[in-house]
């Protein structure tokens, strides 16, 4: 995982909008993804990559 | 070129050209596809990445997800510079141009209404965090330095810290509620997103408000100043502003879409 620059938009802010916002189209002409479960992504991919690079800030 | 059509946004026809160095998702430059009174902004993506099964897999791949999200955002950003785009949900893909046209025709009325509602407006994100460590050095007095001399002293200190934390938490909730009310009054619309997980954001502190506001461009400066002024109001509470964004959080016409 590349280190996100401070000036760059945080990925999490982007995903709030790209995966929860925007017009959702329905119908069989689309191959859209219906509802991406961000929690699942979070658990499977994000946590491991976050933990690898960054010490957890809330750890006692 | 073959492949599927990835649609970023729908807009009213606009005169300006898109930046020539814009690459889009999967490296293919976006182009416009006009159908009657609307324009879709489209690029080609390989079928292998965007069938429903492979997409689910790809979305678990953080590098792929980040690259795709940023490419999508860059196109929307470029559009925001020349028009008011109606962003589509990330990874909205059609088989071919004619599929895109059919979709535009079917949804024409909705799109035009939503574009009118968003016209000349941008989205601002406002987040409020409680600094978890602030209970100790904020109010509630200074914590004594050094190690506790006994188990009893340790417990006393811990209790004091918990109490300070609870007070701060309550102040933060009141603050966030007040701020949201003030900002929503100045905005045309507001949405609450779920608070962000610190593991994802890497931010310190707990996210108690994660809101989006739809604000007219010409009133945005005032809105930003208003947020800025609240920043140092309460010790231990941090306010963060992001934007301007295209109106992602306000693109849905159904009340449940984009709402928290």
UniProtKB/TrEMBL annotation, chain A:
Alphabetized GO MF terms: structural molecule activity
Localisation: Gas vesicle
Keyword Nucleotide-binding: no
GO CC entries: gas vesicle; vesicle membrane
Keywords of the record: Gas vesicle
InterPro entries reported in the protein's UniProt record: Gas-vesicle_GvpA-like, GvpA
Keyword Transmembrane among UniProt keywords: no
Pfam family, one: Gas_vesicle
Chief localisation class: other
PANTHER family (UniProt xref): GAS VESICLE PROTEIN A1, GAS VESICLE STRUCTURAL PROTEIN 2-RELATED
Protein family: Belongs to the gas vesicle GvpA family.
Name of the protein this chain belongs to: Gas vesicle protein
TrEMBL record, chain B:
Protein name: GvpL/GvpF family gas vesicle protein
One Pfam entry name: GvpL_GvpF
Lineage of the species this protein comes from: Bacteria, Bacillati, Actinomycetota, Actinomycetes, Kitasatosporales
Family: Belongs to the gas vesicle GvpF/GvpL family.
Residues passing through the membrane, by range: none
Subcellular locations according to the entry: Gas vesicle
InterPro entries, sorted: GvpL/GvpF
Keywords per UniProt: Gas vesicle
């Amino acid at each position: 995982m590349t280190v996100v620059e401070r000036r760059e938009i945080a990925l999490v802010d982007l995903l709030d909008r790209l995966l929860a916002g925007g017009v959702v189209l329905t119908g069989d002409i689309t191959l859209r993804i219906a509802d991406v479960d961000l929690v699942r992504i979070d658990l499977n991919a994000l946590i491991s990559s976050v933990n690898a690079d960054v010490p957890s800030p809330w750890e006692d | 070129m073959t492949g599927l059509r990835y649609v970023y946004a729908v807009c009213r026809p606009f005169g300006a050209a898109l930046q020539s160095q814009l690459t889009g998702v999967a490296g293919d430059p976006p182009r416009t596809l006009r159908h009657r009174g609307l324009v879709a902004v489209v690029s080609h993506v390989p079928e292998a990445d965007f069938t429903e099964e492979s997409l689910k897999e790809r979305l678990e791949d953080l590098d792929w997800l980040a690259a795709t999200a940023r490419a999508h955002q860059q196109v929307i950003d470029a559009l925001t510079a020349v028009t008011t785009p109606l962003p589509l949900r990330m990874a909205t893909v059609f088989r071919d141009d004619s599929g895109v046209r059919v979709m535009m025709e079917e949804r024409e009325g909705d799109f035009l209404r939503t574009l009118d509602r968003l016209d000349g407006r941008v989205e601002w994100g406002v987040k409020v965090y409680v600094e978890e460590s602030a209970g100790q050095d904020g109010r509630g007095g200074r914590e004594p330095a050094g190690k506790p001399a006994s188990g009893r002293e340790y417990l006393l200190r811990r209790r004091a810290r918990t109490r300070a934390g609870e007070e701060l938490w309550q102040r933060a909730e009141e603050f966030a509620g007040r701020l949201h009310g003030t900002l929503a009054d100045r905005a045309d619309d507001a949405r609450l997103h779920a608070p962000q997980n610190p593991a994802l954001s890497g931010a310190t502190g707990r996210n108690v408000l994660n809101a989006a506001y739809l604000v007219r461009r010409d009133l945005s400066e005032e809105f930003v100043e208003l947020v800025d002024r609240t920043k140092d109001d309460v010790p231990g509470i941090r306010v963060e502003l992001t934007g301007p964004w295209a109106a992602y959080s306000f693109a849905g016409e159904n009340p449940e879409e984009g709402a928290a």
